[in-house]
Design brief:
HTH-type_TetR-like_transc_reg (chains A, B), homodimer, about 200 residues, Homeodomain-like_sf (chains A, B), Tetracycline Repressor, domain 2, DNA-binding (chains A, B)
Chain lengths: ~200, ~200
């Protein structure tokens, strides 16, 4: 096979994967886990069932890959936006909170909840959750320019992430945006003091 | 009908309701929303389908009543335990965090997530969520003996509840108890300072 043909095939294959993963997240957000069947996803992505099976053997594999893919893309997007806020703790915490109160969180929540009572799905999701947990912690440390050697700083970063997760959950059924913004700003001021390492 | 007969019937009716609601929560925790059908619940509760229909017309009604019932019982239990900790902020925050990282939260999470993509269920769950939100806030204020007139105290109480909600979510797939206890103790110390109204 000529190298250009091989390159074109690889591009097409990547494009098919991307289409499937984006359709999966859209389905999770719109229809929930139970409505996100491989058939519905293939149709929405405009991909044949054969091509879909070539990329993802099971629904669990497809959905986990989709959440991981969207996660990675969102991290890049978040880092880019973080560059524009020049290290303001309030602005960074607002960015992280918005990052959580997004379709990514909604899609992940559908997957996490389904995995709790589905042993096969669980084996896929538990390592994914651990990986995403480590990566978001590292990202928050970086964006906040946090020195974890100072007493209490590591805990304050963790509180930030658990808090925005709780706030994102409160945003699932109704728009909780106004309350969220108030809480986030208040916490950001407490965090600012904690990052100085006041030793609490 | 003799008054004693009427009383016995009322007792039996209450007992049937209680059995159905407890079986519902057990099903939600064990099987998730999709496995919690009215048939499975009636079987587990040892109640006829006719009797079940007399008490709850739809699955949504049954599940919402079950979550509300368990919520009210848990609040009583929490208040009782709170009496034994004599106003220690750390102990109270630990109690609230344990209250959230319980089967009640797991059952409610199944219901909340299902309601997001089910319009009928949503009309039942949105007011329930608002009511539970108000009640837990009031309960937290009471247990923490918080003076919301002081600047920042109201926000600190809200941060507590959103934080324990985020921590409870992290506990769904794997046991996150050790990390949770560390974070809760750290936050409780920050909260203690905030309750003094340091004006942040």
């Amino acid at each position: 096979m000529a190298p250009e043909t091989r390159q074109r095939q690889a591009d097409r294959s990547r494009e098919t994967r991307r289409k499937l993963m984006e359709a999966t997240v859209a389905c999770l957000v719109e229809l929930g886990w139970s409505g996100t069947t491989t058939t519905v996803v293939a149709e929405r992505a405009g991909v044949s069932r054969g091509a879909q099976l070539h990329h993802f053997r099971t629904r669990g594999e497809l959905v986990a890959a989709a959440v991981e893919h969207l996660g990675a893309e969102s991290v890049l997007h978040l880092k880019e936006r973080a560059r524009t806020v020049h290290g303001s703790v309030v602005a960074v915490v607002e960015l992280i909170a918005d990052f959580y109160a997004s379709d990514l969180f909604t899609a992940a929540l559908e997957l996490w909840v389904a995995a709790r009572t589905d042993p096969d799905l669980r084996t896929v999701v538990v390592p994914l959750e651990a990986r995403i947990g480590r990566e978001t912690h590292r990202l928050a440390v970086e964006l906040l320019n946090a020195d974890e050697a100072k007493p209490g700083v590591r805990e304050a970063v963790q509180i930030t992430l658990d808090l925005v997760r709780g706030l994102a959950l409160a945003n699932q059924l109704t728009d909780d945006g106004n309350r969220r913004r108030r809480i986030v700003r208040h916490w950001a001021r407490m965090l600012e003091a904690a990052l100085e390492g006041d030793g609490l």
